[in-house]
Amino acid sequence: MVQPDPPRILVADDQPDVLEALRLLLKGNHYGVDTVASPTAALAALERRDYDAMLLDMNYTRDTTSGREGLDLLDKLRTLEPDMPVVVMTAWGSIDNAVEAMRRGARDYIEKPWDNARLTTILATQIELGRALRRAQRLENENRLLRRDNLPQMIAESPKMKPVLQLMERVGPSDASVLITGEHGTGKELVAQWLHASSARSARSFIAVNMGGLSEGVFESELFGHVRGAFTDAKTDRVGRFELADGGTLFLDEIGTVALALQSKLLRVLQTGDVERVGSSKARHVDVRVLSATNAHLQQEVAEGRFREDLLFRLNTIEISLPPLRDRREDIAPLAMHFLRRHASRYRKPLAGFDAGAMQMLLGHSWPGNIRELDHAVERAVLLAQGEQVRSADLALRGSTSPASRLEDLPLEDVEKMLIQKALSRYDGNVSRAAQALGLSRSALYRRIAAYGL
d(Cα 222, Cα 215) in Å, to the nearest integer? Predict the structure, then answer.
C-alpha cells in the first residue's frame, strides 16, 4: 500500500535561526518543510509547488514593526492560493495586526517566542480543515453539475419583497431582458444571479460586467473583443464579454453610466445579436440573455437626453425594482443572522447571535448603504466580538442613533414588533412578565408574537 506524502509546510521568515528552529520542530513532527527568507522568495516557492499550509512572519528587514510586508503578501496569497491555510507569526503581540491579518485571509496567528505544542496543534488543525474544505468544494462543484435547482439564497420575508419574488418566479425561466433597479447595495447582482440560475441557461456562463468601470477607450474591446493588431497594445486576439456569455447570461451592472456615444454600439448588438471584434469585419452571432442593473432613474435620464429611449426599451422588457433595506425592516434580523453565521464560520468565532442592545441598534439604523452596509457591519462586529454574542459596541455603526429617537420614522407595526422583542429579551422570554410590562393580556401578546413570527 502506497503511503500518502506527509503534509508540506512553507515557512517565511527573515531570521535564519528562526527558520532553522521551525525546520527542526516541524521535521520532528513528520512535516515536509521548505524555508524562505522574504516575501519574494515565498511567492517563487508557491509557483514551484503546492503546500498544505504556510507559516508567515509579519515583519521583515525593511520594515520590522508595522507588519506591512506580511499584510501585502497575504493579499497576494489570497489571489494566488486562496485555499491554502496561512498562520501568521509576530513578535510584537499586536492585536491590530492580528485582526487585520485575519481579515485579509489568515486562518490563525501565533506570537514569538512560540509554544511548540500550540504551534503544532494549530498547524495540524488548519491542515485538516483545509483538506476538508477542498474535499467539500470538489463535492459541491460535482453536485452543481448534477442539479438544476442551485438557486442563490434569497432572504426576503418583508411584505415589500413578496411582489418582487413573485415577479422573479415568473420571469426567471424566460429569456426576457430584465432591468433591475434600486439603490446601491440592495442586492441587484444577487437577483441577476437568481434569474440566471432559474433559467434554462443555468448550466452556461453568467458573465458580469461593471459598465461604470469601462472607459470609452476599452468599451468595445471589453464587450465585443478585438483581433491582434487592432490597436497598439493588441498583441493577441481577445474574446469579448458577449462571446464569453454565448448560450448563457450577460449582466450589465451600472448600465446608466454608459456614455451616450457608446449606447448606439450596445443597442446594435442587442438588436441583432451580431458581434464584431475591434479590427475585424467578421460578425459572430451570439445567443445571450441580457440582464442589466442601475441605481439611476433612466426615464429621467431619457427625458434629459443622457440615455437613449430605444436602448431603454430593449433593456427593460421587465423591470424589477428592489426596495431599500429601510423599507423592509422585517428582513434586517434574518439577514444579520445569515451574515453572522457566514462570517463566524469564516473567522472561526463561536457566536450564537446578537444581544438585545445590538439587535435594537440594527433595527434602528437607517442603513444608507443597504444590505451591503449590513454585511460589512456584521463582519466587523464578528471580528471584534469577544463573548458568545455580538454587542452594540461591537457594531460601532457610524451615525447610528438610538432606536427610540427614530420611532417616528418607522411604521406602526415595526414599532410594536420592536417593543415586543425588547420586552421579551428583558424578561428572558417570560411571556407573562413581558405582557404585564407592555400593558397587554397574555393572549393578546401571544397573538402578536404569532403575527410577527417572533
Answer: 10
Partners of residue 87 on adjacent β-strands: 55, 108
Rounded-to-integer distance, Cα 22 and Cα 16, Å: 10
Check whether 61 has a pLDDT greater than 80.
Answer: no
**What number of helices (H) and strands (E) belong to the chain?**
19, 16
pLDDT at 401: 44
* Nearest-angstrom CA–CA distance, 171 and 317: 10
Euclidean distance between the first and final Cα of the chain, in Å?
A: 57
| Dihedral sign computed on CA atoms, order 443, 447, 448, 450 | positive
Q: How far is CA 445 from CA 223, 362, 385, 413, 451, in A?
A: 58, 23, 33, 14, 10
pLDDT digits (tens, 9 = 90+) for 329-372: 899 999 999 999 999 999 999 898 898 888 888 988 989 889 99
Q: Which three cell numbers stand for residue 184?
A: 446601491
- For 48, half-sphere exposure in the C-beta direction (CA atoms, 13 angstrom radius) is 9
Q: What is the pLDDT of residues 10-46, one digit of tens each?
A: 999 988 999 999 999 999 999 999 999 988 999 989 8
What is the C-alpha separation between 256 and 294, in angstroms, rounded? 6
Are 60 and 67 within 8 A, CB to CB?
no
How far is 210 from 208, CA to CA, in rounded Å? 7
As a whole number of angstroms, the distance between CA 19 and CA 112 comes to 13
Which pTM value belongs to this model?
0.56
Least confident of 140-144, 178-182, 265-269, 437-441: 140-144
Mean pLDDT of the chain, nearest integer: 84
Q: Are 344 and 394 in contact (CB under 8 A)?
A: no
Cα(434)–Cα(425) distance, integer angstroms: 9
The residue whose grid cell reads 434602528 is 364
Q: Do residues 52 and 21 make contact, with C-beta atoms less than 8 angstroms apart?
A: no
Mean pLDDT value across residues 114-120? 91
Judge contact between 434 and 424, C-beta under 8 A.
Answer: yes
What length is written for the chain?
A: 454
